[in-house]
Design goal:
The protein is mainly α. 83% of the residues lie in helices and 0% in strands. The chain is flat, with a radius of gyration of 24 Å.
Amino acid sequence: MLGDRVKRAKGVAVKNPLRAIRRVLGAAGLPVLGAALVVTFWWLAVVLFDIEAFILPSPADIVEAFIAQPGDLLREIKPTLVETLEGFALATVVGLAIALAVTTSSRLYRMFYPLIVAVNAIPKLALAPLTMAWFGLGQTSRVALVFMVCFFPVVVSSVAGFTSTPAELTDLARSLSASRSQTFRKVRLPSALPQIFVGLKVAVGLAVIGAVISEFTGVPEGLGYAVNSYSGQGRTPEAFAALILLSVLSVSLYYVLAGLERLVLPWARQTSG
């Protein structure tokens, strides 16, 4: 009996590392394979249809353009990253505060939530000239536009989270004579966090878009400025290299938030489908 148990334990110990390795390979290998297939078809399309580089460069043209002047492109990441993070952080703080306010008072919800929805319907590209008129051409106007672009997803997801607390949990807290602050910290906030993180992950991608839009308005720095400038000069490979850096920046910020979510909410994956 003891020998059988030891054998089973050894079998489980062997299977678990193998299962973990397969899981890691599946998580990392499939996205890499998908990207490789896209790049391959892209390359074949450029070669088979003899597309000029100034119209659609091949992946090799883009790599060559980046290697030729990596400093010029990498230098433009910092302005875009700074204004993205500042606008996103401001939208997170203000969005959470407004969501908490409108969910704690039904009167405030009826007064202001429809107005927030109406403001969000305004095309954000139309706000770029206005932010320049209000705040000038400096950093403030760019951060303001990023804030306007990613503010609404934070508010909507936070409102959905704060209003989706299971009734049985609030009843349990009430039966235990918990105060409102205790109920919020122990029940409402943990229940709302998965929804809040959904909005944050949507907002961080929009924040990068807002930063690029703000840099299209004549600001002489940032990856958006680089794309606009290179495209105007007919240097399409360099413009594509800047676009790829924008994509890498957006994906990196998304996965930072996803990692933070797994760190803060380790139970969310176990309780969700």
